[in-house]
């Protein structure tokens, strides 16, 4: 089941990616719409993180290509932001919350330029958006998981990009942070920005996203949530895992997925 | 005067090492510094045999390239053979160091280097190893010029590349996505480390240079939680241990390089116990105070 987006933000074309000669993604071919909140869903080891890492050029592509806003990544790099998994960095690093957010401005600065006042103000306003303005001088090791994720989100906001890839932004955060992050994402998509999120929780996925990509090493489905988020396709994605399947079945039965406006 | 020259040279070397060491330990690459400092030996010997002098820029460049090659080999074994990093480091640098020892012993007659000097260095000779120009003017200690040159290059490198080094150290994936070449900055840093170890070789030797790379940086790490301050504190510790180490050596009538590193070790121990951030003593006190408060309440 695959629905193509008109005027896409991202196009994956026959993408195949391997780790140590073992393919982890096979023939991913899809287009994702602009201005949508897009969830990439699939079981562990399905290649969700790999998909966005390879889109960002962090992993070599076996074959195929990825285009963003109908350009190569290098041509539109400053319009695109990537938020790595929280665990990917050393939170004991001697740096402050403010300095991490300021890094978001580095992309716009050249090799020699130092951040200016405008950059610092921008970083401050992003910290305010995520509710972390009270922590600017805090060393990052003193933050909770949710606060760390907010800092990462603030850094991404400071990039002023049009397309965001976020790797598990909801993993291990408190409920308040989850709600705050979601509302910021919704605000971003309302402004026409595209947000692509790797997500593993099916229950919340049904509520959060406009568009769903179901992935399990190959593309199972891609399309608006009301067309794609159904028992059959979820079973196909999570194939064989009975406990999960039972939950999914329950979920689909219980929750009438709200119909949303078309793109 | 001699004391001043020795301390000055030691300080200059220590500042270079401490600053680069901050990046190394935060990248969890302290042992790569160790590897480089040993692996440059064949480079020094070969460059020496080719150029006939020990103080030429070619020696620094030749040996520096070998240092970069070492890190390349380590990466290569790690990535291609999927060998653990520490195993890759262990195999690579000992092999290159052994190669250097063989070259050294085979060409011992022609090379103004000996194994003791390579291993332990001798900073006490700094004031008598002078750079004399062709017209016979004495320009001062050779080691001072070389280490001064290396320090200037290092300071310039860190100043120019601060953002890139900082970002590729903290979050390489993010750095790559905003278009900073992680590989380029990795090898530039490795080049700087190689150049610095070569320049430090005469003075402190292959074994102790590792201590200069790691100990001041590790001490500074315990004392601050701001990266810029860490660089400054590490450099300050470098100067302090050079001076204190010199006087300790004079007092004991022992090896200066050994004394410098001993002082560095003592400072690290003090920081470990008394640092306001991570200090064991301070934490205890804090815990006790909290416990008292709880009791009172």
Shape of chain B: globular
- Overall structural class of chain A, as computed from helix and strand content, comes to alpha/beta
CATH class category name of the domain at 2-208 in chain B:
Mainly Alpha
Largest interface: A-B, 31 and 23 residues
Number of strands of chain B: 2
Are there runs of chain A of 5+ residues with pLDDT below 50, and where? 258-263
CATH topology category name of the domain at 2-208 in chain B: ABC transporter involved in vitamin B12 uptake, BtuC
Q: Which secondary structure elements does this structure contain, and how are they paired or packed?
A:
The complex is a heterodimer of chains A (263) and B (297).
Chain A: E1 8-19, E2 22-33, E3 37-41, H1 48-55, E4 63-68, H2 73-76, E5 80-83, H3 97-102, H4 117-129, H5 145-158, E6 163-167, H6 175-190, E7 194-199, H7 202-208, E8 211-216, E9 218-224, H8 225-228, H9 231-238, H10 242-254
Parallel strand pairs in A: 3-7, 3-8, 5-6, 6-7
Antiparallel strand pairs in A: 1-2, 1-4, 8-9
Helix pairs in contact in A: 4-5, 5-6, 9-10
Chain B: H1 2-26, H2 30-51, H3 57-80, H4 85-106, H5 115-120, E1 130-132, E2 138-141, H6 142-160, H7 162-170, H8 172-177, H9 182-223, H10 227-252, H11 256-274, H12 280-296
Antiparallel strand pairs in B: 1-2
Helix pairs in contact in B: 1-6, 1-9, 1-10, 2-3, 2-4, 2-9, 3-4, 3-9, 6-9, 9-10, 9-11, 10-11
